[in-house]
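Section 3.1: Structural characterization of target chains.
Under the original work plan, the team committed to producing a structural model for every single-chain target entering the pipeline before any wet-lab resources were allocated. The record below documents one such target. The sequence was received from the expression subgroup and is listed exactly as submitted; it comprises 452 residues.
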Amino acid sequence: MPTQQEQNTITIKGITFIFVILFFLTINININNNKVLCKSLNQFESSSQQILFLPLDERYITFESVLNMGTAIPQQILPPNVEWLPKHKQPANIDEIHNWVDSQLAQSSINACIFSAEMYLYGGLISSRESNDTFLLIEKRLDKLSSLKLKYPQIKFYLSTVVMRIPSYNSDFEEPWYWAYYGVNLYNYSFYTHKYWVLGNPDDYKTAQTWVAPVPSYIVSDWEWRRLRNHNISCNLLNYQQQHYNKYNTKLFEHIFITLDDNAEYGFNIAEANHLKNLTKQYKLDQQVSIYPGADEVSYVMLARLSSDIAKYQPVFYLVFRDPNATERIPNYEGQPVIDTINQQIIAAGGKITSDDTNTDIYFLVNNFSEEKQLEAPNQPTIGRSINEFNCFDKYLTTSKVLAFADVRFSNGADLIFVDYINSLRESNQIDMSYFAYAGWNTDGNTLYLYL
């Protein structure tokens, strides 16, 4: 997630992509010329079932916007009292939130929960990066969270957690105070240390030591301690998931979403994520755990996954890239190719991918970048460009399929020429706006998941 200043450049136009799944699951669709009626979410309209929601933090995009998206499904989403949520660097009132969860779960109308572990365990996203709560205290809260399934086995719990980010700039707006002075140092220390672990080049180790040398040792220790605390909690979460499944043959959490916020090709966060991926394979939890780049958008993904599970249907996606030769490019703020992130996101949200463009529900049209390094949206070129560069999408327009445009050409904003292209389609009635979705946000992961 970029800095607050960078977020001010964010552009979001059209219908964000969670509606592609939520909308799709409530309409009649044509597949191979056979009329198929999806198992609709509307079957629950007459019920009073409710979803309990704990957001990542208090921001509009992670809280109120999720509630707005939730109006697309019949169930009512119940959020905690705003007064209990974090206020920037002031942590949430964890005791009040825990008491509220306990009292709400006792109501027979609750049938599912969408929870952020950062909120339940640490008091919010920023607090997870700054709090001095001990590992034992956090583990006690995790034990309490895990015990809820034993007490309420009929309720489905969807849980997200974040691999702590490592921003590459000096700013303490959402980080501990020392990030204002040593953020770049700690980022490069992490990057080159992990690169040395992977490649074994002594020059990388020397570079890492050069970057960390100016940082006081107590700051390095504080940062590494908090990273280790959070990572061990995530490891315990996977262990609890495995033990519960082995003992009861049921899932503790219906699905666990582990996201990487602000990452690169190398770094301690990448090493931690790789360890969690290995544990997931070791514990045979591949179908129960998703690990991918993202953070702010994860509640939308959980809502989409829950909706897909309720409808007992996996929407089918066919991928189309503006530049099919550049799908292996690694975008800003992330550490893996965009094609990997797209595949992981679709699966995490409850969909599946096909290579047959005639047997699909949704055309996933990706405006990807071609350059070795993705440009920032404020620096995008416009002179010499035209909407003709998007003609590759034209063949998919005259269809009754859902059209989903993912704008990841630039980071931190929309591709202005791409927006012109979409506007031209709208003005010439070449697309049915009731079957249309578009998203362009800050990072590729945020855009793609919000879009999903």
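The longest strand covers residues 156-163.
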